[in-house]
Amino acid sequence: MPQVVEIVLRIPSLRIPGADGGPPRTINNTDIRFTKQVEVEAIPKPGVILPMSAGDSLNFSCEVLQANWHESKNAFVVACRFNRRTIAPVEYETIINSNDWTMKPLL
Description:
mainly beta; six-stranded mixed β-sheet; 8 strands; elongated
């Protein structure tokens, strides 16, 4: 039976080339997570690779790290990480500008 879970996605930090040959700019995503509600057939287990999307054009995958029931949300929260070690600037921009992903700083 399908159910809605909250995906909490960790993405890698990235370096964006500097304008006019200047030094690159680093975007540190260590303390940032992106969340999205998705419908899944079953609660995914750690190690499972889930297909994700952002906007109309970006498809990527993420690896499940853990899934826990959160009583306050009355739902499972599935912690995931971007399935590659690096993220392209265009992919990063698509995720942060997407209406279906929400950026949340960790406190």
